[in-house]
Amino acid sequence: MAKDKKSFVAYSDWNSTFEKLSDEEAGKLAKMMFSFVSDLKPEAPDRITELLFEPIKNQLERDLEKYKEVRQKRSEAGRNGGVKSGETRSKTEQSEANTSNSKQIEAIASKTKQNEAVIVNVNDNVIVDDNVIVDDILLEKESKETKSFDRKDFKKKLLTLGVLEKHADDWIQARKNKRASFTESVIDAVIRECEKYNYSFPEAIRNCAENSWQGFKYEWLNNLNNGKSNNTNPNNGPINIRASGNKVDGTAQLLSGQIRYFEPT
After folding, report:
1. The pLDDT of residue 54 is above 60
2. Which is nearest to 64 in space by CA: 190, 161, 159, 146?
3. Which residues contact 14 (CB under 8 A, 6 or more apart)?
């Protein structure tokens, strides 16, 4: 966790996972989670705990990155606000000084006109700054401009979220072939879909890369495993179908990074 960060976000979606566990298994998973956020670098006591904790860990890491970004932006905004405030004060003082000088010149000119015997030499070096308000508006506009997000930023964010570089490159190529855009909103949409079903984000991108999907819907994984697809648009859904008819005899099955529990048959 970040320094001085004393809390973290737990999602109600995780409850469905804990409800399927025994008290002992749930306790192991909870201890694993709290040890992780406390920077204790825990090791999973067994494989089931390790697999169940993986999507939770990925979400905690994403939340930490968001926290760091917000903290950095607030810090930069504070520094920029201080600089801007200083510049504004300096310009205000200059403007007031110019106004005072103008009034003094007018008073001297008026007195000279009344008494022509008086000789006045005025060295006029007054600089009137009419752009004070305009400059302030431009500075405010620049601070509000958002940074452009191109294909390199798209890949960088994927890697930051734990996606393998090969899968990132393959998915980018698939989207390029379909003339799809590369925006931050596209990645956020996949993240929301993964969080909705407690599914690993890197696994979602791997499936997109392997199946040349333009986007990601969790239901498409079921279509792959059932040997069918209910998506009619090849640009938005699965196009490579892999059938899987194996029967499960045990109490759990690992499907694309997810633990599914079944009643014994």
Report:
1. yes
2. 161
3. 56, 198
As a whole number of angstroms, the distance between CA 200 and CA 224 comes to 17
CB 36 within 8 A of CB 29: no
Residues 154/187, Cβ–Cβ less than 8 Å: yes
**Eight-state DSSP code of residue 132:** H
Give Dmax over CA atoms of the chain in angstroms.
119
DSSP state of 23: H
Q: Please compute, for residue 142, the number of CA atoms within 13 A of its CA located in the half-sphere on the CB side.
A: 9
CA dihedral 249, 251, 255, 258 (to 10 degrees): 180
* Helical axes 165-177 vs 201-211, angle rounded to 10°: 50
- Strand 252-255 and strand 258-261: pairing? antiparallel
78: how many CB neighbours lie within 10 A of its CB?
10
How many C-beta neighbours within 10 Å does residue 154 have?
A: 19
In this predicted model, what pLDDT tens digit does every residue of 122-156 receive, in sequence order?
A: 444 444 444 444 444 544 554 444 456 888 999 99
Which amino acid is it at 86?
A: G
* Cβ within 8 Å of residue 63, ≥6 positions away: 8, 9
Q: How many residues does the chain have?
A: 265
The two three-digit tokens of residue 189, written as one number:
């949409």
Domain boundaries, the chain: 11-145, 151-261
Q: What is the pLDDT of residue 100?
A: 74
Written as six digits, the tokens of 63 are 């939340």
CA distance 130 to 158: 48
pTM: 0.34
Q: Which of 5, 51, 7 is nearest to 29 (CA)?
A: 51
